[in-house]
């Protein structure tokens, strides 16, 4: 066999490989676009407004306890004991959480102000959107 007879047999293989590369590249582009559009998160996570299980809303506390009960497979007696514990400790933990939030707010104010001085007005607007609320 000479090289001229082997060339037509390779053409379908080359077309298939080229098509596979195009599809793989398109998939990569779609994956990157979806990652950036749907899954990207702010650089700074938003501040937790309330500690888990200690929310002001009784409905949220009930949902937290139900999830805890499911995840840990608590008996009814254990669930009742956990609920009493949460209710008993809620004011103390709430006070500690509020105190920690105040400390964090004061700790980040200085570096944030210095950062704002470095940035352009457009960058400052974007930066403010990234910051957690305390």
Gist?
This protein has 134 residues and is an all-alpha fold.
Write the layout of secondary structure elements.
Layout (H helix, E strand, L loop, with lengths): L2 H37 L18 H15 L3 H43 L2 H10 L4
Features:
4 helices; mainly alpha; 134 residues
Description of the molecule:
The protein is mostly helical and 134 residues long. It has a domain at 41-130. It is built from 4 helices and no strands. It has helices at residues 3-39, 58-72, 76-118, 121-130. Mean pLDDT is 78; it is low at 43-47.
Number of discrete helical segments = 4
State mean pLDDT (0 to 100 scale): 78
Structural class: mainly alpha
Low-confidence stretches: 43-47
Note the run of SSEs as H and E: HHHH
Give the helix level as a range of percent: over 70%
Spatial shape:
flat
| Largest β-sheet summary | none
Task: Give the strand content.
Answer: under 5%
CA-CA gap between termini: 78 Å
Query: How many DSSP-defined strands?
Result: 0
Overall radius of gyration: 28 Å
């Amino acid at each position: 066999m000479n090289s001229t007879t082997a060339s037509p047999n390779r053409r379908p293989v080359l077309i298939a490989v080229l098509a596979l590369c195009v599809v793989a590249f398109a998939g990569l582009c779609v994956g990157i676009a979806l990652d950036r559009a749907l899954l990207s998160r702010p650089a700074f996570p938003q501040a937790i407004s309330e500690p888990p299980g200690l929310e002001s809303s009784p409905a949220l506390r009930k949902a937290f306890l139900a999830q805890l009960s499911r995840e840990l497979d608590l008996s009814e007696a254990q669930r009742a004991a956990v609920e009493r514990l949460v209710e008993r400790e809620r004011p103390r933990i709430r006070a500690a959480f509020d105190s920690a939030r105040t400390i964090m707010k004061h700790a980040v104010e200085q570096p944030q102000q210095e950062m704002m001085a470095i940035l352009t007005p457009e960058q400052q607007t974007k930066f403010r959107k990234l910051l957690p609320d305390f």
